[in-house]
């Protein structure tokens, strides 16, 4: 087992990794930019090294700085968290050549899943359902038109090297294809340095459902069930839950089995999440895989009692899945997570600054993952997530009531937060009834605007 | 105050056994190499951004240093 792990991240996830290390008796090294000098992850790590000025490119994304810090601290391994360098295959390779264990899958697998169109092809070969679409990258506008005819409109054109909604265009008829194809290509080339595009059938009113998996370094891969993540604004998740009301026990078992076999076949190791769209006939279609721990991992932890971050560390240390999990994975109860952002709850403008009061809720079945604290400062340089409020109940009804209660007792003053938005979502009849798809938030915000002022 | 622009290991001389780049009392020019910081097996020469008298060295040979760490105190002179 590792003696010392360097956490190549910041904020709540850095703290989360430190917690797992502490419980495993592993020493921790934090890295921080000058803007994070007074952060909790710096406070609670055994050692801390300043690696640069506030800007990401010169600090947390500066690979030589991160590796150099690991070297002078004599770390054995690096945990990359999520975002930042976690899906940078080059970084994973540099770790390997520097004699540091990268806690995650191999660079080749990061690379494979990072090229969306290649990932699609690999999944298809192994029998994972994918959306009808192009067989690989589209070479020209003419080919795109051919595929459009085959697949049937509406279709969506996507960037192979992409993500986050960029390099994507929905095409509803052949007459708009050429122009949108060119736009997508230019946007993709500008955003990702790679203008390769592929095409998929466009699903109307989809739900976003993802499956958590864990693979050890001995070829065993298991699914830990799904998370329902349809409550999104501009492709950013706001709220997640497990289980999904739309996933039957049979579907969960069936998808779990095909994912286990597929990922074992391609040699996947460590934690990962496979994202699907679900159509109105409750059919699941693979869209992409994230080769890292995710923001919303606590939702799965709450319903399975599996510590995913500890599992990652143990797997990277060579442990077999059966020793990590110590028995079958049992799903109990229902969990919901609200991502609390430092943003105005209606305008969504970022709200950096000093927190003057901070009282997180507690009580039965409530968990907070946060690096924020009273008198702490939220810097303007990084993403706006300040806390994850996660609750578990014996069923969805109790989980919703518990989340409402907890949100109402969460006090944050000095900055704006999205707590009021989440309170409104938790009292929305459609949300409570489970009537939602990825268009829910847009419709919800429109409804709110149309309401007369209170 | 001359601070380190990178994370790494501080070395006072160009190679083990050779004399240090500078010592207290020396007059140094802007751009003069004061030390080496090694990062990922690369030796980076750290140059002074001020001219003046080197008053004090604040780190030991072979010491691990972080970004922004104070290395040398220099009394500036025109």
Write up this protein:
Chain A has helices spanning 11-24, 40-44, 63-73, 89-97, 107-114, 116-125, 141-151, 174-192, 249-265, 297-304, 308-316, 321-325, 396-408, 419-425, 429-433, 440-450; strands at residues 4-7, 27-33, 47-52, 77-79, 101-102, 155-159, 169-171, 197-201, 207-215, 221-233, 236-242, 270-278, 284-290, 334-341, 353-354, 357-359, 366-370, 377-378, 385-393, 411-413. With 454 residues, chain A is α+β, with helices and mostly antiparallel strands. Chain A has three domains: 4-103, Rossmann fold; 132-201, 2-Layer Sandwich (Dna Ligase, domain 1), CATH 3.30.1490.20; 207-450, D-amino Acid Aminotransferase, Chain A, domain 1, CATH 3.30.470. The N and C termini of chain A lie far apart (58 Å). Chain B is 0% helix and 46% strand. Chain B is globular, with a radius of gyration of 12 Å. The chains are: A alpha+beta (454), B mainly beta (78).
How many domains would you count in the coordinates of chain B?
A: 1
Share of β-strand residues of chain B: over 45%
Q: What CATH architecture label of the largest domain in chain A applies?
A: 2-Layer Sandwich
CA-based shape of chain A = globular
Write the layout of secondary structure elements.
The complex is a heterodimer of chains A (454) and B (78).
Chain A: E1 4-7, H1 11-24, E2 27-33, H2 40-44, E3 47-52, H3 63-73, E4 77-79, H4 89-97, E5 101-102, H5 107-114, H6 116-125, H7 141-151, E6 155-159, E7 169-171, H8 174-192, E8 197-201, E9 207-215, E10 221-233, E11 236-242, H9 249-265, E12 270-278, E13 284-290, H10 297-304, H11 308-316, H12 321-325, E14 334-341, E15 353-354, E16 357-359, E17 366-370, E18 377-378, E19 385-393, H13 396-408, E20 411-413, H14 419-425, H15 429-433, H16 440-450
Parallel strand pairs in A: 1-2, 1-4, 2-3, 4-5
Antiparallel strand pairs in A: 6-7, 6-8, 9-10, 9-12, 10-11, 11-14, 12-13, 14-19, 15-18, 16-20, 17-19
Chain B: E1 2-3, E2 8-11, E3 27-28, E4 33-39, E5 42-47, E6 52-57, E7 64-65, E8 70-76
Antiparallel strand pairs in B: 1-8, 2-4, 2-7, 3-6, 4-5, 6-8
């Amino acid at each position: 087992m590792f003696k010392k792990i360097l956490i190549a991240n910041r904020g709540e996830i850095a703290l989360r990794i430190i917690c797992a290390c502490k419980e495993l008796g592993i020493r921790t090294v934090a890295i921080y930019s000058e803007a994070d000098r007074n952060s909790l992850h710096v406070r609670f790590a055994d050692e801390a090294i300043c690696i640069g000025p506030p800007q990401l490119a010169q600090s947390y994304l500066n690979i030589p700085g991160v590796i150099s810090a690991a070297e002078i601290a004599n770390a054995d391994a690096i945990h990359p968290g999520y975002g930042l360098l976690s899906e940078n295959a080059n970084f994973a390779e540099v770790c390997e050549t520097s004699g540091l264990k990268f806690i995650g899958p191999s660079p080749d697998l990061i690379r494979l899943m990072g090229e969306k169109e290649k990932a699609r092809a690999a999944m298809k070969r192994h029998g994972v359902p994918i959306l009808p679409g192009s067989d690989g990258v589209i070479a020209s506008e003419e080919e795109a038109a051919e595929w459009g005819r085959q697949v049937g409109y509406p279709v969506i054109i996507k960037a192979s090297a992409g993500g986050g909604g960029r390099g994507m265009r929905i095409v509803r008829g052949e007459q708009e294809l050429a122009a949108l194809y060119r736009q997508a290509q230019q946007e993709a080339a500008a955003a990702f340095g790679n203008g390769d595009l592929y095409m998929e059938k466009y699903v109307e009113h989809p739900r976003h459902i993802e499956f958590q998996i864990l693979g050890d370094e001995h070829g065993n891969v298991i699914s830990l069930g799904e998370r329902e993540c349809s409550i999104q604004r501009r492709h950013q998740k706001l709220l997640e839950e497990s289980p999904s009301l739309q996933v039957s026990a049979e579907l969960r078992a069936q998808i779990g089995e095909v994912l286990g076999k597929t990922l074992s076949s391609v040699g996947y190791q460590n934690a990962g999440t496979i994202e699907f769209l679900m159509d109105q006939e409750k059919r699941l279609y693979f869209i992409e895989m994230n080769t890292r721990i995710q923001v919303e991992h606590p939702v799965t932890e709450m319903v399975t009692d599996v510590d995913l971050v500890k599992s990652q560390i143990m797997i990277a240390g060579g442990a077999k899945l059966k020793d990590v999990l110590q028995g079958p994975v049992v799903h109990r109860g229902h969990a919901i997570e609200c991502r609390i952002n430092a943003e105005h709850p209606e305008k969504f403008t970022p709200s950096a600054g000093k927190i003057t009061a901070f009282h997180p809720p507690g009580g039965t079945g409530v968990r907070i993952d946060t690096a924020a604290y009273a008198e702490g400062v939220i810097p303007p340089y990084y993403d706006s997530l300040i806390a994850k409020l996660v609750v578990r109940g014996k069923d969805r009804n109790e989980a919703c009531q518990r989340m409402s209660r907890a949100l109402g007792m969460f006090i944050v003053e000095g900055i704006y937060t999205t707590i009021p938005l989440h309170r409104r979502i938790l009292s929305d009849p459609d949300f409570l009834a489970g009537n939602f798809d990825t268009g829910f938030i847009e419709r919800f915000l429109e409804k709110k605007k149309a309401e007369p002022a209170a | 105050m001359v601070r380190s622009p990178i994370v790494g290991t501080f070395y006072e001389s160009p190679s083990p056994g050779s004399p240090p780049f500078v010592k207290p009392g020396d007059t140094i020019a802007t751009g003069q190499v004061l030390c080496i910081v090694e990062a990922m097996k690369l030796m980076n020469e750290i140059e002074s951004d001020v001219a003046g008298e080197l008053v004090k060295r604040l780190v030991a040979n072979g010491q691990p240093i972080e970004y922004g760490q104070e290395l040398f105190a220099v009394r500036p002179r025109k």
